[in-house]
Amino acid sequence: MRISSQMFFMRNTTTVMDQQSKLSEQNIHLASQKRVLHGSDDPVAIATIQRLKQDLSIGEQFIKNGEMAQSANELSDTSLTQSINILQRVRELMVSGSNGTMSEANREVIAVELENLRDELMGVANTKDGNSQYIFAGFQVDTKPFQKNEFGEITYQGDSGEREYRIGSGVSIQGNDSGAKLFMEIPEGNGTFVSELGSNNSGAGVISEGTVVDKNAASDYLDQDYTIAMTDPTGSGEPDYSVYGLKEDAVTGSANIKISSIDLSDPNIASVDPTNVGDSVDITFIATANPNEFNISINGQVSSDIYDASDTTTQEININGISIEIDNADGNPIGGD
Questions:
Q1: Measuring CA to CA, which of 26, 27, 206, 305 is 20 to 30 A from 94?
Q2: String of DSSP letters for 174-236
Q3: 166 - beta bridge partners?
Q4: Residue 301 CB burial class (10 angstroms; 0-12, 13-18, ≥19)
Q5: How many C-alpha atoms does 298 have within 13 Å on its Cβ side?
Q6: Residue 301 belongs to what H/E stretch?
């Protein structure tokens, strides 16, 4: 086979170019200090590298989420601190305004300051973050959460959503509290129940805030009111103590009850009509603070008249068009436990 001079020179030129290309490739590796730059360098290694890059990207996003959550919570803490300061000032004004020596003009000044404090508190509740989003609007971040309607009442326009930030695999932290939870659903008393003195209290009795021993047991009675009554002793005996509640087993005894009349022309008859509120007429005795005295409820509507269980005569109670007659002529009147 004859090899021409031209072919010989072309082969040498190709060899030199290949070596220059390899040298250039090695220089790129040396400059980048990386063994693998392309998939062709090491297919197994490049797959591992891509997976690690993805993990690093996710980790960086977790860090950013944590920073955003920290910023959101710090802004919420600042706003709540401002709210506490405002409410503390409101308390001071309310205490000073209750002073009997305070003049009418001074009370008007206090009223004006209280209105300003209300508007200031409303402004705090409508705080925005750096993205012009309302921090106490729940998920409705573009809706102003607290607005004053045409009647001067402040209403909540947001929702109860609470944003969460994912800061790790399966780990999330809360970044805000909704305005409904912070400003609208404020618990009274100790957060479980309220202890109050009755309007008829004429002694020096003191009632504490109280505690709940078993919250699970108490959960069935959250909507109940209970009254503690003390009656004067007869002779030299000790005072009698009674506890009245809204539960059916809070009273004992018997009574004869009959519906004496129904006035369909009564404007409030619909509130007690069984066809509107149920299939029957539900009559309930509700103990008052006075022993043997009860309010009567018909289908949830409570009477203003008092039923006196110690009175053996027939008593008539009218509630929104339904009249009932009650007597305890059998000698075993209804009374507290």
A1: 206
A2: E----HIIIIISPPPTTSS------TT--S---------S-HHHHGGGTT---EEEEEPPSTT
A3: 172
A4: middle
A5: 25
A6: strand 301-308
Determine the Cα–Cα distance for residues 162 and 35; give it in Å rounded to an integer: 47
Write out the two tokens for 184. 């609208």
Q: What is the pLDDT of residue 82?
A: 93
- Please report the pLDDT score of residue 120 as a whole number: 93
- CA separation (Å) from 293 to 69, 182, 191, 257, 309? 57, 40, 30, 16, 6
Look at residues 231, 245, 226 and name the one whose alpha carbon lies nearest to residue 290: 231
φ, ψ for residue 64, nearest 5 deg: -65, -40
> CA 146, CA 154: separation in Å to the nearest integer?
6
Residue 31 CA to residue 299 CA, distance in Å, equals 88
Rounded Cα gap, residues 112 and 188, in angstroms? 26
Cβ count near 277 (within 10 Å): 16
Report percent pLDDT > 90 for the chain: 12
Q: Which residues of the chain have pLDDT under 50?
A: 246-251, 331-337
Confidence (pLDDT) at 328: 67
Question: To the nearest 5 percent, what fractions of the chain are helix, strand and coil?
Answer: 40, 20, 40
pLDDT of residue 209: 67
3-class SS at 119?
A: helix
Question: What confidence score (pLDDT) does residue 331 get?
Answer: 47
The two tokens of residue 188 are: 């009274």
What are the tokens at 288?
């008052």
Residue 319: how many other CB atoms lie within 10 Å: 22
| 134 touches 143 (CB < 8 A) | yes
